[in-house]
Write a structure and sequence with these properties.
Elements (H helix, E strand, L loop, with lengths): L10 H12 L4 E2 L1 H9 L3 H4 L2 H14 L4 E6 L3 E6 L23 H7 L8 H11 L3 H8 L5 E6 L5 H12 L4 E7 L2 H14 L4 E5 L12 E7 L8 H14 E13 L23 E4 L5 E4 L2 H10 L4 E5 L1 H6 L13 E7 L1
Parallel strand pairs: 4-5, 4-7, 5-6, 7-8
Antiparallel strand pairs: 1-3, 2-3, 8-12, 9-10, 11-12
InterPro entries: OmpR/PhoB-type_DNA-bd (IPR001867), SAM-dependent_MTases_sf (IPR029063), Sig_transdc_resp-reg_C-effctor (IPR016032), WH-like_DNA-bd_sf (IPR036388)
GO biological process, one term: regulation of DNA-templated transcription
GO molecular function, one term: DNA binding
């Protein structure tokens, strides 16, 4: 039910409401409202007064949790009110975290529109290619509105990517981009405002010392962010934090760069004979000149299972072993990566 039982809608209100229902959680421009009201004659009949009046009357007839938010000189967004599962003040930054902290060169690189590295875009392409969505269907199909947490994203186009992915797959969701770096928070807030998206939020939080409410999220996305941790203890804290805030039967999509020193037949086809090098991570660097840390495949698998997760699917292995070759790393020393679906 969207409007009160005893509320009769006028024809104009019904036209606008139908438009808003089709574009729920999206910015609707005043011109679009005018077209809904007056059709082909909208330019001739256009009236800001009439548009404001219809919106005002419609807003009074809505029932919770539905609401209409006005964005001055831009339009309106029709959405469901939502209680954020935080016990903290959103504007409170966390204490500076241990591990790698990106410099300005890295931030510039990750937000360069010509950059070929599209982190979440590549992830969702892999999800489609390797049919990972079937696991979503079995675990999350009965949830009307998913709660999704994206950890430590530094790229503004991840906002576009996840919003498009949800829209294309007709998935209802609320998304939180969490970060302990206020520069990243501002990058994402700016992009969210530019797109006029209301179902995406940002919050200061370090997953290793998370203050998010336990059992709040259906899906957590951690795309290469473990590689910003410089030691095993930080990785443990991150995985325990994820487990703490994940709902029962919730899923985790996690991507990691793995130690390239053991990519040879001496250590098996897939590093199965490689050591669990929790005390000696490998340091790698990409074009943006930022040092990060990676461990062996057996290490990550043991980290996940010891943290209380089941490895549902390991994927993108072939692509992960060849992708970095394209960037002309030193032979036999190029980083490789892989992705995991955990539960």
């Amino acid at each position: 039910m969207v409007v009160r039982d005893n509320s009769l809608l006028t024809l104009s209100e019904e036209k606008v409401l139908n438009l808003l229902l089709d574009k729920i959680n999206k910015l609707v421009k005043r011109d679009d409202i005018a077209k809904a009201l007056w059709g082909n004659l909208w330019l001739e009949k256009y009236s800001d007064y009439m548009i404001d009046k219809v919106i005002y009357l419609l807003r009074k007839k809505l029932v919770a949790p539905y609401k209409i938010s006005t964005f001055r000189n831009r339009g309106i967004i029709f959405s469901q009110s939502w209680t954020i599962p935080f016990k903290i003040i959103r504007s409170t930054p966390t204490i500076k975290s241990e591990g790698t902290h990106p410099h300005e060169e890295y931030l510039k690189y990750m937000n360069d529109t010509t950059n070929i590295r599209k982190t979440l875009s590549d992830l969702f392409k892999s999800i489609k290619k390797e049919n990972i969505t079937k696991y979503f269907d079995s675990s999350l199909k009965d949830i009307k509105e998913l709660m999704i947490l994206v950890i430590n994203s530094y790229s503004h186009d991840n906002v576009d990517t996840i919003s498009s992915w949800l829209s294309n797959n007709k998935i209802g969701a609320r998304i939180i981009f969490s970060h302990f770096d206020d520069r990243a928070i501002k990058i994402h807030q700016k992009r969210i405002f530019e797109l006029g998206i209301e179902h995406i939020e940002t919050i200061y939080d370090d997953i290793r010392k998370t203050r998010l409410t336990p059992s709040s999220f259906d899906l957590v996305i951690n795309d290469f962010r473990l590689n910003f941790n410089s030691n095993h203890e930080q990785n443990q804290e991150a995985m325990y934090g994820i487990r703490r805030i994940l709902k029962l039967n919730g899923l985790v999509l996690i991507s990691v760069v793995v130690d390239s020193r053991y990519e040879s037949s001496r250590y098996g086809v897939d590093q199965e004979k490689a050591p669990i090098n929790k005390s000696s991570p490998h340091i790698f660097m990409f074009k943006e000149n930022l040092e990060r840390y990676c461990f062996t495949v057996p290490y990550y698998k043991k980290l996940f299972t010891k943290s209380g997760f089941k490895i549902v699917k390991e994927f993108d292995v072939k692509e992960g072993k060849t992708w970095f070759n394209k960037e002309k790393f030193i032979p036999n020393r190029e980083p490789t990566y892989r992705r995991f679906l955990l539960q």
